[in-house]
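Minutes, project check-in

Agenda point 3 was the complex the collaborators sent over. CS summarized: two entities, 581 residues total, and the question is how they sit relative to each other. Sequences were read into the notes so everyone works from the same version.
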Amino acid sequence: MRTFAKGTPVIVAEGLHKSYGDTQAVIDLSFEARAGSVFALLGPNGAGKTTTINMLTTLLPIDRGRASVAGFDLTGQPEAVREVIGLAGQAAAVDEKLTARENLEMFGRLYKLPRTERRARVEELIERFRMTDYADRTVGTYSGGQHRRLDVVASLIANPLALFLDEPTTGLDPRSRTELWEEIRGLADAGTAVVLTTQYLEEADRLADYILIMDEGRAVATGTARELKDDLKRDVLEVHFASEGDLARATEVLKGHVGEYGVAARTVTIPVPGGSASSLGLLRRIEDAGIPVVDFHYRRPTLDDVFLTHTYSVTA
Amino acid sequence: MTDFSYSPPTTSDKLRWAFQDTATITWRDMVRTSRQPEMLTFAVIMGMFFLLLFNYVFGGAIGAGTGVDYIQYLVPGVFVITALQGAQQTSTGLAQDLSEGVISRFRSLPMNQVAVIAGRTVADAARNIIGVLLVAGVGYLMGFRFTSLGGAIAALALTIGIGYSFSWLGAAIAAKLRNPEMVGMLSMFWLFPLMMASSAFTPTATMPKWLKAFADNQPISVASDAVRALVDGRPAGSDSLFAVVWIVVLLAIFIPLTTRLYRKV
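CS then shared the predicted structure for the full assembly.
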């Protein structure tokens, strides 16, 4: 079986640009995704994640810049690229009128797998991904989790070196999501280079070895989850109030003493570079103003904080 | 980096792929059709509707006015119309396909991309054969007769041929618009004039001169006349040739056009 040694750069993007008319969807994007690891493109809706995936899977021409998969140039050798990639998720579905087995059989034929190998591969995938119970029902009758799983499995039929998953878990219940995570992790551990897009910070945090945060077409931060959190170099204080009124009064009190802060659901989130001592100071000010505090948390930054820092200016 | 030997496909590889992929997509579309038999049922019910309406409502008047055995005149016309309906279903079906996610996956596969359309036109042609045979069965109950097996086979082949060439017209519209509702509405505009201003249901002799000129030469009339001659065992050479020319012309225009429209993202 063809594989790359773990750590080999499989997907290489250099200065990618893509515009639709006047809208710049992707601006000067560069990254490398390596064999045996999961690379996450994390960003809000419209950040350019799907456009990036579409360029890297030959669905969209690249305006400027270069990209290659397994050494094959996207622009010059799209046919070769198609031989070594798998695509799943939002962008590439399966046929709803066919059964799982029929879908896998069809994709196997389109990859020109020889008949015996194809049959064996279809059975192997159905068994390995525990789809036996519903493999002969039409896809239209599947639950969201079963459907997504088949999406991913269908992209594995020809043992891709590079797997692209466009928001693979969007809309899934927590249990199906966790299961799919385990399967994606397993594929990466077996040597596949996985690129996935997600809006879920938790997903990137749990699954990705390397994260690129995108906003409005640009890479705004890259690194491992740990590196991104460390880059913030500040802990976070969250203070919960009983009412929106209390929250508003508290933010008035804090305004002169903190730089940026975020407000949501009767909670104020404040980055505190000074550590626990300055947190105590802030809490005391709130107490002195006579505003009752329901609860507070002092914590290390999460990927949420990183994400919000880089994608919106107000919040921390 | 490990090197992978990748030999680009030769021309003969590509040609073989084109056939294999078309066969795969044909299989897929036939399985789909078998799971939504409404499409076939609809085409056949339309055919029967035309048979009953024209034979029992207008048939007396048309037969008396022209002196033809009307059921024998009508059924071949309805064959062609049934095949034309099938072509319209290629259009709406393909538009539906193009609006679904599975198309993106096809685009990311190392396959012949036009096979997605070619496969559908072949599957629709297969469905048309069943539709036309069912219409022939109903016609038989109403007094319609083939005069020879050879004529019947030739008539069926020509019917499917003209239906197939119109499938590519339908596919071009679908590839351009990619919206099932719009494609459905638009199909009335090309389907209806071709159907009504033709010799499929009535002889064109009494039409105004300008309309007759169009009606006598447009593909549905030409095909209807040829199929009729083949069914009746009359010499059908020139009509058939004219019909085959239409088939070739339509395919020569719409296969490349559809391919171009489909490849454009």
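Noted in discussion: Chain A touches chain B at residues 2-5, 8-9, 57-61, 70-72, 77, 79-80, 82-85, 87-88, 90-98, 102, 106-107, 109-112, 138, 154-155 (CB under 8 Å).
Follow-up: revisit at the next meeting once the mutant set is ready.
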